[in-house]
Specification:
single chain; mainly alpha; 97% helix
């Protein structure tokens, strides 16, 4: 082999080694990105489940508030009706 063939062979070998290292690094990066994407997906799933639970809790509170509001309205109507009756009785007593 002549010198230029030996140099070319050495350069080719060095290039091949460099490309192999780059391929290894790219594979490591791909694995890291895949792991990160999986973790992000798991976090998004957890966030979505938490949002669903929060939404359900809010709807539960809405129902509870409606029940309390309906009860207050019914009690208010009862008190108002009793007040009207008392007012009528007081007027009748005043006339007598």
């Amino acid at each position: 082999m002549n010198d230029s063939t030996i140099r070319l062979s050495a350069d080719t070998s060095a290039l091949s080694d460099s490309l192999s290292k780059i391929a290894e690094e790219m594979t490591a990066m791909k694995d890291a990105v895949s792991s990160l994407a999986a973790a992000m997906g798991a976090n998004l799933d957890a966030s979505a489940k938490q949002a669903e639970a929060t939404n359900a809790a809010i709807h539960g509170l809405d129902d509870s508030v409606k029940t309390v509001t309906d009860s207050i309205e019914a009690q208010t109507k009862t008190v108002t009706d009793l007040g009207s009756e008392q007012s009528k009785v007081t007027k009748e007593i005043s006339k007598a």
